[in-house]
Amino acid sequence: MLWYIVRRLLQGIPVFFGSTFIIFSMVFLTPGNPVLRMFGDRTPAPEQVAALEEKFHLNEPFLTRYFLYLGDILQGNLGTTYAGQSVNEILARTFPTTLRLALLAVIIQLVIGVLVGLISGLRKGGIFDNVSLLVTLLIISMPVFVLAFVAQWIFGIQLGWFRPTVGAGAPWSDLILPAIVLAGLNMAYVVRLTRASVIETSQNDFVRMAYGKGLSRGRVIPVHILRNSMIPVTTNLAADFGILIVGATVTEGIFNVPGVGNELFKAINRGDTPEIVSIVTILVIVYVLVNIAIDVLYGVLDPRIRYVK
Amino acid sequence: MSALEPLLSVEDLQVAFKTQDGFVPAVRGVSFDVYPGETIAIVGESGSGKSTTAHAIINLLPGSGRITGGKVLFEGRDLSQLKRGEMEAVRGKEIGLVPQDPMNSLNPVHRIGFQVEETIRANGLATSKRDVRKRAVEVLKEAGLADADQRLRQFPHEFSGGMRQRVLIGIGLSSHPKLVIADEPTSALDVTVQKKILDHLEHLTAERGTAVIFITHDLGLAAERAENLVVMHRGKIVESGPAREILQNPRHPYTKRLVSAAPSLASQRIQAAAATGAPIGSVEVEGEEPTLSLLTVAERAAEASVDAPPVIEFRDVTKVFKIRTGGPRSIPFTAVDKVSFQVPKGSTMALVGESGSGKSTAAKLLLRLEDITSGTIHVDGKDITELGKQELLALRRKMQPVFQDPYGSLDPLHNIGNTIAEPLNVHRVGDAKTRKARVLEVLDQVALPQTVLARYPNELSGGQRQRVAIARALALKPEIVVLDEAVSALDVLVQAQVLNLLAELQSELGLTYLFITHDLAVVRVIADHVSVMQQGKIVEQATVGEVFDNPKTAYTRELLAAIPGVDIPLGA
Amino acid sequence: MSSKNPVRTAPHYVAEVDEGGLGAVDAVRVSDRKSNLWLDAWRDLRGRWMFWVSAVIILFIVFVALFPGALTQVPPNDNCILSVKTQDQADALGVPIGTRISDHGPLPGHPLGFTKQGCDVFSRIVHGTGTSLSVGIIVTVLVAVMGIVIGAFAGYFGGWLDSFLMRLGDIFFAIPYILAAVVIMSLFLHDRNIWIISLAIGFFSWPSTARILRSEVLRVRNLDYVMASESIGLSKFRTMFMHVLPNSIAPVIIISTVGLAGAITAEATLSFLGVGLPNNIYMSWGNDISAAQTSLRTAPQTLIYPSIALSVTVLAFIMLGETVRDALDPKARATR
Predict the structure, then answer these.
(1) CB contact under 8 A, A18 and C261
(2) ipTM field
(3) Per-residue pLDDT tens digits for C42-101
(4) pTM for the full model?
(5) In the CATH scheme, what is the homologous superfamily, with its name and number, of domain C49-80+115-335?
(6) B369: which chain C residues are within 8 Å (Cβ-Cβ)?
(7) Per-residue CA distances from B34 to A105, B73, B241 (Å)
(8) Which residues of B touch A124 (CB under 8 A)?
(9) Which of 1.10.10.10, 1.10.3720.10, 3.90.1150.10, 3.30.70.1230 is the CATH number of A94-301?
(10) Which InterPro entries match (chain A) (predicted)?
């Protein structure tokens, strides 16, 4: 098990270097002077340009610049926005809110998703199953911003159950609606994956043997069917997390949640490239770490993969 | 003992599976009795309904299956009418189950101990944590696993197939049930392991007076292990009664065919079917009298072929694989270890061994699908390890393979005509017209009608696919055919048919066969010479007659003793 | 024989020989219909209402994308007016001079009303179809080609090439493709077009396709018929093209159909975020939905109709993907 974790961490290293390198290259290999791009349509004075080129090490060779950028990230120095704000400060301010929102969304997605998927899978072809298939199909077809507007319009404006936008301090009660929207798409995937997995697991010989050796249904379902069905659901959490990051950007923007996603949303709208790159880099690093954590969890759930390969 | 009541009485059992076209019957009016302490075997080919019958008894039919009629009386109670909770109380405690596939019958994510202990708790054999653990250790010890304490902490994937089956037997018998259903408990295991496991099961059940329903496709095995047989075919019982009587005096035509086709019960090599005047093609004719026995004409003069020059010659052939472990290093594994043998022209050499013996690797080395580590292989006197591209192509033309899996040996997206023509196209033999003619010719040789040309593999049965694979192998008029477990996956009647076909083609075309198999019984009916392999080495090499009559090594004797039904004297 | 003592002598029962029961061993049933994977899949598809519904919707979408003029003569971008100023405009719209057209509801000839800029909602939706579909198709083709080439090479040739390509895939997979696209699009501020946005979306979404194809190739590569073809002398390349790829491609088709829906969503999302296609050159549903946000309370139709168009399009491709999956993958069919 220890060796498995070490191996996963080692595998994360090239991914970390590779992904940061790709983001870096995209930004600095794009045609046009990045300093000039900072000024948009205005024309800066030559000495201003020279000073900024010096500041951003633009005269250094490409690889040196990459390692300078990497060094900055590793030291926790994420640079400043066009407006001169420290990205570190922005993240420190916004990250806790996003974490709460994401936590709420993951809980909703897993609890409801697994439960609905389990019932659907056990009663394959029944009314509940067909309705859940239809509803999840509709949810999957709706881009997250459409889902957000629909929820905002129905529950926020028409029914008035929730505040359509999040108030100051982002209390938990205000986060429920955005969290449901954020959870929506992944929840639909979790329902479908759990359902398929439950059906497949139920057909296994070991489930038949579990009944054959005298276990009751109340034991076979959680211990042998659900437990094993969680393996593919866990594996898929990595992809879910990618959707969650993008979803958070849109949802936080629409519901005005003061989180990282909202900050990215605003930065995109302002065209603040340095801030976009910094936030994206951080999100990618978080994503890589979460992937490793999910892989380790997968190893805990499935003893086979700790040994083979 | 005169007032003996049956323990289980199956009366006119009907089972059907729900499909898109409505209910399809799988078991059609099956009745039999099981008395306390007796062993009864249900024998049949795949699709005969034998496993379905077994599962219906303990109400574990797959989702789409339903009992549509009849009764399953267990100690007077009709099991088919029980509520779910009542049935759960019967399973495990009253009727134990030993399942078919040991590889998939233990949950891979739970430790062995956990899975044994939950059985003990569910059947109320012990309640306190310590007692449950103590009982679990006992169960594994009874099942023949010595270091039970250690074993309880391991996961199923750390166990071999035989060990898993021992655990499952332990679980199935843990609450001393009155009846055990053993559903093909050893079909996935090597023969020597099979024998040990079945001996153990027999020992345990005899000691406790447990009745056993033993499901198997192997008539020899059934007769060896059970007093009474039930032979099933297409969902019905065709014949039942005392095992010995049925084997020696089968009365139903189907049973007769089964008995005569079972290689484990046959004694001698097949001679060309043509010699007996029974064309293979006759099996196509609906309703015709069966002509499928493994023809036991006088043993062919094996000496004749010894004089012929060797077509294939292995000299100290070694193959080492690097096995990647979970750790940072890889360890070398010698799959084939200094193997030497010769195959004379026109004869059959059988490479026999259990899984992991290196026999299939040897075949792949000959086919140049793997590179040899050291040693040489000569074909027709030429060292095949040093061939150029053109020479290799020429070699491939002379030597054709037929592989094991009838479902994997043909590309599902190519029709039969294209499949058979592929070698002709690759080697650019003749023009389109002659190729077409050749395809028809070989199709005829394997006794398949021309109508299959435009068909796809999934429309054919396993035996038919293997015949197509043989036809493809014959298309280039090869000298050598490498048969890698080519009949192992087939039902016994179809297997007999393909073996007859192979024998006939050999005598007609003068083919040389390298026949890879795990099944010594098949060797006797098809081969001239045998090389027994164990852990990469050849442990014994002789003519078939010598190996069977006078085995030299302990391992060969063990293999021979493990052939099911080998000691059963057959009637006329 | 069993070591147990027989408890009884069972009666020897022999069934009657029934007519249909025996017959020949392994006779070829030639009357059956032809069948292979693709024929079976097509038969399966034909019998599903979901397939026909999605097919009809998709054909309609393609028609609208190719011939937007067949549905509306109103230009999507020109002649937009915030309020009615001239008599001509008043006559054309049938409302008095001075009426605010911005966010106005339906008027004759303008069935879905007007946007904030006073453009015809229906016309913008019709003209936006082509954008969505083009991006969807370009991305899908790009991803499929990259995924197939990389996955096939990695799976079939194995060794260091496999390790290298798969690590590369891990790296690209580590960057959620929409985030990558956001970065790329924010760099191309002035020259955004359909090709750039398609590349931005597609360039980071090939690893899933490559992984699926690779594992499928690994499975097929070890099947007996591949070994058989190699051992009759077929070269590695020809074996790959004739036997391995055709038998591995089904999952790629499934994932590509669903991926087309994903690409359309991605384009709309990028446009919604403001890093999509420029609003003055391309009609894009995402742009329109984004622009309509502020009118959610006052004029929900400006937001709802493009949202419906987007969702129905995505739904159609997802439904097609699901039915194709059921038809091609027997395992998926078993879980139906």
Answers:
(1) no
(2) 0.81
(3) 888 888 888 999 999 999 999 998 988 888 877 777 777 777 777 777 777 777 777 777
(4) 0.83
(5) MetI-like (1.10.3720.10)
(6) 227, 230-231
(7) 58, 10, 12
(8) 63
(9) 1.10.3720.10
(10) BPD_transp_1_N (IPR045621), MetI-like (IPR000515), MetI-like_sf (IPR035906)
